[in-house]
Design brief:
This protein is of the alpha+beta class. Helix content is 28%, strand content 29%. The chain is elongated.
Length: 356
């Protein structure tokens, strides 16, 4: 429920809202128009808002309730407490096939790596390749290799091939054909558009479009604040892209299609995680960056169907209250769904976009 007066905005959120409590801060920052915010949140879902509070310059007061009773106002976290609670870096590396499996499927992996329609989509438990944001080929296993070819849709699963010897030419040809069908289905959006993943794949192919250099990492495992219990907790998240700019600094990229109420706050979560000391060191090592490299935040906003992006009230109102020490920038992306380099308009640093 919302209550407002000339000099204050109050939101009272019931426990039934669950994880949607996260969005209340996003709406409140847009509606406040500079007024102080007073948020009364369910205790078990308040932590993500408390995590973000120290990084926002808006006047925000947070109270919590549980089982119909208003509890004592929780202490405001400091920036360092928020950063310390952001979670550690991922220690596991992308999956590696064993020496036997590598030899058995070498022709297949080299074909997939060189294919102009495929983008690497490896995980810690498999090697994978995707097209337009949809995985069309995966390989896993060391003694017995499992190969799934085609889009693994719920009603039309990918074809499974299991081998424990070198891939035969007949099976290799069958896999190529099944992957080709998957590529056609991905281009035709038969199982969904997956547009944001498609755009990320295109930006990964052309990092210079975002004024970034190789290597450009995609879907970097990280942590974000999560609700659901009274004690602070984290939920797994993935930084869309991370790379190095021409000055040698790290850039954390958060992508979205058109205006999104959570774009800025999600990007903030990942920037806080990436600037925790051990995580910053880990990112610098992976990107071969200087030990003194700073960490910047880039919001890459694309338009649906490759059109010019529509940017609304949330982005501007949220950017206006980000803490001044957060270096951020906006990239407006169009024509990302073709075969050529996406068209990117980079706004000057710390310049909010004009709402459409």
């Amino acid at each position: 429920m919302w209550f407002e007066r000339k000099d204050e905005l109050l939101a009272v959120v019931g426990e039934q809202e669950g994880s949607a409590t996260d969005t209340v801060l996003a709406h409140a920052l847009s509606l406040a128009q500079g007024r102080p915010l007073r948020l009364v949140l369910p205790q078990q879902w308040a932590y993500p808002t408390r995590f973000r509070q120290p990084w926002l310059t808006a006047d925000i007061g947070i109270w919590v309730h549980s089982r119909g009773k208003l509890l004592q106002q929780p202490p405001k976290l400091t920036k360092q407490e928020s950063r310390d609670a952001a979670g550690e870096c991922e220690t596991s590396r992308p999956y590696r096939l064993g020496p036997h499996a590598t030899q058995w499927v070498r022709e297949l992996t080299e074909w997939a790596t060189a294919h102009e329609d495929l983008v690497e989509a490896h995980r810690r438990n498999l090697r994978g390749w995707s097209c337009n944001g949809q995985r069309v080929l995966t390989i896993e296993g060391k003694q017995k290799v499992k190969i799934r070819a085609g889009i693994d849709a719920k009603d039309a699963p990918a074809t499974l091939h299991e081998i424990d010897a070198p891939l035969t030419s007949t099976t290799f040809k069958a896999i190529q054909n099944e992957v080709a069908v998957g590529i056609g289905q991905a281009h035709g959006k038969e199982f969904g558009k997956f547009e944001e993943h498609h755009m990320q794949g295109q930006l990964r192919r052309y990092p210079n479009a975002l004024l970034l250099e190789e290597p450009l990492l995609r879907e970097v495992p990280a942590w974000r604040p999560a609700g659901g219990q009274t004690e602070p907790r984290r939920g797994r998240g993935f930084i869309d892209l991370a790379g190095i700019d021409g000055a040698g600094d790290i850039v954390v990229v958060e992508t979205k299609l058109d205006s999104d109420e959570m774009l800025i706050l999600q990007g903030l979560d990942y920037w806080v995680w990436a600037t925790r000391e051990d995580n910053a060191t880990w990112l610098r090592d992976r990107l071969y960056a200087s030990p003194t490299a700073a960490t910047n935040l880039l919001f890459a906003i694309g338009g649906k169907d490759g059109k010019a992006p529509k940017i609304g009230k949330y982005e501007r109102s949220h950017l206006e209250v980000l803490a001044p020490e957060i270096p951020w920038r906006i990239a407006k992306i169009s024509q990302w769904n073709g075969a050529n380099v996406p068209q990117v308009q980079m706004l000057p640093p710390s310049t909010p976009p004009q709402p459409d």
